[in-house]
Design goal:
Length: about 230
């Protein structure tokens, strides 16, 4: 069995690299023929159009209510390797103000694993660190649990201090946190005096959903300008 389809592809780039790499990434993704097998069937796709949007911004598009009547709001995406910051002015991304620091969740886990190994002579893994931070049951000793929790809290404080050095002051501006790291760090972020008002996007597919919404809106706008329906655009 063989299937063929022409599709439009929506994807994203980190805000800091969006302007410089958008055209190159678009050309990379445009393909006349993509072949693969799915559930035993041969599939052939032609990618006819590619739409590229800033990550983090796409993640909050489904939460547009959070940006209504807000002149300045930061979107902070905490991932495995980096913490990426985008400023929204009246709901629109300001691509002149993008920040990125290499202080993601994996760096924190490596620090904590090393610290526990040094102080307690015990080998733990990333899963142990996440379980302790999320207050899930473990067989770790109280002393190890205390080290993990205190180290995670200090790591979040260091992230916020570094952001403040980069003119991202969350005491005077609201923030929307996205990304898996934001979910993990949520208890510390919510209780920090360095964060005045925060919202959290917890859907791991938030960026993908946002890409789809932005691309659909763009296609509808293009179709309307030509007097067409979106299906025929």
């Amino acid at each position: 069995m063989h299937g063929y389809a022409e599709i439009d592809l929506a994807a994203g780039l980190p805000p800091e690299h969006y302007s410089a790499l958008k055209n190159k990434f678009t050309k990379y993704l445009l393909r006349d023929s993509v072949r693969f097998r799915y559930n035993g069937s041969a599939i052939s796709l032609r990618i006819r159009r590619v739409f590229i949007y800033p990550q983090a911004y796409a993640a909050v598009v489904p939460q547009s209510r959070l940006m209504i009547n807000t002149p300045r709001i930061f979107v902070i995406d905490i991932g495995g390797f980096t913490v990426d910051v985008l400023l929204l002015c009246n709901g629109k991304p300001d691509l002149q103000f993008c920040r990125s620091i290499e202080m993601g969740v994996l760096s924190m886990s490596n620090e904590i694993i090393g610290k526990v190994g040094s102080l307690c002579g015990m080998k733990i893994e990333d899963d142990h660190v996440a379980a302790v931070i999320q207050n899930r049951e473990t067989i770790l000793t109280d002393s190890v649990i205390q080290i993990v929790k205190e180290s995670a809290k200090q790591y979040v404080e260091r992230i916020l201090d570094k952001l403040r050095e980069l003119q991202v002051d969350l005491r005077s501006n609201p923030v929307i946190f996205v990304g898996g790291g934001s979910v993990l760090f949520r208890p510390y972020l919510e209780n920090s005096p360095m964060v005045a008002k925060a919202e959290f996007v917890t859907d791991p597919k938030a960026n993908a959903v946002g890409y789809g919404m932005l691309a659909t809106g763009q296609l509808r706008s293009q179709a309307a300008s030509r007097g067409q329906t979106i299906e025929n655009a």
